[in-house]
């Protein structure tokens, strides 16, 4: 089997405006083979940068575009192709956007392998540990603290027993944040697991620790990205001193960044995104580093149904893969891009035994939102 084409599709919903809200864009990669098998992957990042990284022509030995590296190759040689892409794009790649592009390709290669061998991806990864995975829901809090009661109630009604909020105004002003947390805790009661996402807004170790202490009585399961994940020293001091678990890492890529983050930052929970960290292959290596260090891996995931399906397959085949983030986005790129979106059932997602990622893509929607700039 040989790869005959690698295509990149950039999607954007114009009505969502310029501001970054939820699921306003997506970038998909389609890999075609000479046997007729087609694989899909995605990256949750800047669509046009991924497109450039894949389509750019070779400029020198360390500046190949991924498309040129992949055409004519056997798509089943996933590990060798990962290394080939990494090494031959190393001037512009190695971290960030270059790895985001490799992530999308890697996911598409696993999709192809599953179809070729006629086995679910979790079988190719070593077999599934469970038939369903507990999910938690994430929402952006409303500006008025009281209005968050209704948002939390909606998630409860859907069956979630865990929820996380962050973004919007949250994280900028302690009194405001406290009122939001109080309102949500009051609404959901003591048995629901609550997490907060600070998107680095607590800035420093000292500030974050003092806020963590004031929030102790609200029994938060974890505080996510309280400070920038580049501040490894701050992370390790906070994780040691706070009573809440400290989580982070969604913007990091490759086993190398995660090795530093896990071994020096000492978080309690690490959150690689399968479409940014290097794909299914690299996520498995990051999981092994997390396991070796007694750190829990709870992937970040907030894009299309392709990301969701890939994350479910990966977690099913991971010994400690017991918790998944389930997007609450109302963007059609989440709700309607994939015909067979992984459902939420009583607060859990089922582990599908379908072949490949099962991505029956909605081509009307793709054609509606596709942009070529
Ligand atoms: Mg986050």
Automatic annotation (TrEMBL):
Keywords: Magnesium, Metal-binding. SUPFAM superfamilies: Enolase C-terminal domain-like, Enolase N-terminal domain-like. GO terms for molecular function: hydro-lyase activity; magnesium ion binding. One of its GO terms (biological process) is carbohydrate catabolic process. Residues 145-245 form the Mandelate racemase/muconate lactonizing enzyme C-terminal domain. It holds the Pfam family MR_MLE_N. CDD domains: MR_like (cd03316). Its cofactor is Mg(2+). This is L-alanine-DL-glutamate epimerase.
